[in-house]
Amino acid sequence: MDPPVNPADDSGEGARGASRPMRGNPIARMLRPDQGTEGYLLLVILALGLVLSVSTEGFFTLRNLADLLVSYAFVGVLACGLLVVLVSGSIDISFTATASVAQYAMMLFLLDHGGNWLVAFVLAGAIGIVLGSINAVLVHYLRVSSVIITIATLNVYFGLLIFATKGAYIYVFPDWFTAGVNLFEYTDADQNYYSLSLQILVLVAAFVLTWLLLNRTTLGRQIYALGSNAEGAKRLGFNILALRLFAYGYLGLAAGVASVIQAQLAQSIAPTILVGKELDVLAAVVLGGASLTGGAGSVGGTLLGIALLAMLQNGLILLGVSSYWSTAFTGAVILISVGATAYSGRWVKLRSARGEL
């Protein structure tokens, strides 16, 4: 008897209703089009890493890799939240505006009333959850495309923030916030400083928590089921509103948390600096195999997507390519990823029709 299929399987295959386990060479299984994109991404990352290591002097160094890990922590935390929303069958474009509002409000509170790291994360996270939940309620009751709804709320949140702040920057932080968190500090012979910074710790925690949610909880299985077949999930008695509230609230929480670590890294807060980074986050998640139609996506794929995006953008800089090409390149990555996903879906349907799956 075949083992049961887990709807929250990393490949998202369980949510698609696959019914037989794959046998044979594990590497061959990984590289099959119907087994997700993780295998392809891993090969591309290894190949790109080899090319950049040979063609540039600074890419394959501990200093550069550590800097990439810290600088892409903001994108990584947001990608974890966006993955949950995409798996649920919706999309959210407003998370950078949510992060901007949470970041600014959090710092104003800390400057006026004092606090600590717990207060900072709880306050920013709570604001993010509230704004994310508003998106969920609008999407559920208005029954309009989530893209349209969240583009609208992106502009509403961002517009209100700019109106309230007049675009003023914040440069003065509490001393403990400026200092950050650094564990296992180390300075090498070349005076390069390394540590497990706040950004790295939060990034790891976000990926672990999201993996546990999607792969080890009933709620995660229900989110996959909702994204795969919303009508079927409703007939099974799932609380669709509650699931959407959780998914959007989770992204809102991620946006709030990400805003804190970004502010600590940048040592300044500007209400206009985060809006516009949606493309990088969406590219990383889609590149990792998440479907824009829902029901598919994995934490492992998202991690590989972020790694590939970071390597590509960093490689362009090291090769002397103008930074103005970065946005165009990221857009091209999304087109290629969506095209590859569509091809993979047609390949699976064709084989199913032939009785080969």
Report on the structure:
It is built from 16 helices and two strands. α6 (95-113) crosses α13 (240-266) and α14 crosses α15. The chain is globular. It has a two-stranded antiparallel ribbon. The protein has helices at residues 13-16, 26-31, 38-55, 62-71, 73-87, 95-113, 117-142, 146-165, 175-179, 198-216, 218-228, 230-235, 240-266, 278-287, 299-318, 325-353; strands at residues 182-187, 193-197. It is 69% helix and 3% strand.
Strand content: under 5%
Task: Give the N-to-C terminal Cα separation.
Answer: 16 Å
**Strand count, sense and closure of the main sheet?**
2 strands, antiparallel
The chain-level structural class is mainly alpha
User: How are helices and strands ordered from N to C?
Assistant: HHHHHHHHHEEHHHHHHH
